[in-house]
Design a protein that fits this description.
Blueprint lengths: L1 E5 L2 E4 L2 H9 L5 E2 L5 H12 L3 E5 L4 E5 L4 E3 L6
Antiparallel strand pairs: 1-2, 1-6, 3-5, 4-5
Amino acid sequence: MFIQIAPRVNVYVSEDDVKFIQTHSQESFRASQLPAEDVDRAKKLSDKAIFVRKKLDTDMQYALNRRIRFVNNAKKK
């Protein structure tokens, strides 16, 4: 599945990533609240501009980028 982060800019995400996005899309969360494999997934998705991150004193806070859009039928190049 693709996610549009800007006009003409689509990013590919796997089905596991989509499930992670849907479970954490309602509110912000901290890296200390996640298991180790989900912390890596949150970092990867924030590098793709799907999540935005805010560095706190001792932790990292993530929130969903509200400008993204899910695109179902896009061609992978």
